[in-house]
Amino acid sequence: MDVINTLGRRKTAVARIYLKDGNGTITVNGRDYKEYFPTGTLQYVVTQSLEVANSLGIYDIKVNLDGGGITGQAEALRLAISKALCEINPEFRPPLKSKGLLRRDPRMVERKKPGQKKARKKFQFSKR
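Given the sequence above, the corresponding structure tokens read:
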């Protein structure tokens, strides 16, 4: 099997991955993913699509992450891994789709409007 290259996005985070046969190492920006994502919740998010497809420990994944925060990066990585698994084997698509792992989360930060403190918050109203 040659290298599969896919892209995942979430908010402003972009994950570019290179997936190939191996022993299950996930390298994020030159570091191990457990070092890059310190909390167990984020580590679970990263490996979630591999667990659903029963592919944990089969593929080596090299990741380039850019932009966004740590949660957005983890979810962008999850989407990229899910897409790559579907490219490898189309039989992985139904279980991944039923868990919602193939859908890009469209929610973005609402922009700040002029004459307001934030996107929705206004300055205090003074009658006099």
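The domain at 4-98 is CATH 3.30.230.10 (Ribosomal Protein S5; domain 2). Try to locate this feature in the token string yourself.
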